[in-house]
Amino acid sequence: MTVTSTPEPDDQHLQRNLSNRHIQLIAIGGAIGTGLFMGSGKTISLAGPSIIFVYMIIGFMLFFVMRAMGELLLSNLNYKSFIDFSADLLGPWAGYFTGWTYWFCWVVTGIADVVAIAAYTQFWFPDLPQWIPALSCVALLLSLNLVTVKMFGEMEFWFALIKIVAILGLVATGLYMVITGFQSPSGSTAQLANLWNDDGMFPHGLMGFFAGFQIAVFAFVGIELVGTTAAEAKDPERTLPRAINSIPIRIIVFYVLALIAIMAVTPWRDVVPGKSPFVELFVLAGLPAAASIINFVVLTSAASSANSGVFSTSRMLFGLAQEGDAPKAFEKLSRRAVPANGLFFSCACLLLGAVLIYLVPNVIEAFTLVTTVSAVLFMFVWTLILLSYLKYRSQRPALHQRSIYKMPGGRFMCYVCLVFFAAILVLLSLEADTRSALVVTPIWFLLLAVTYQFVRSKRQPRAALDR
Question: What domains sit in the chain, N to C, each tagged with a CATH number?
Answer without folding.
Answer: 19-458 (1.20.1740.10)
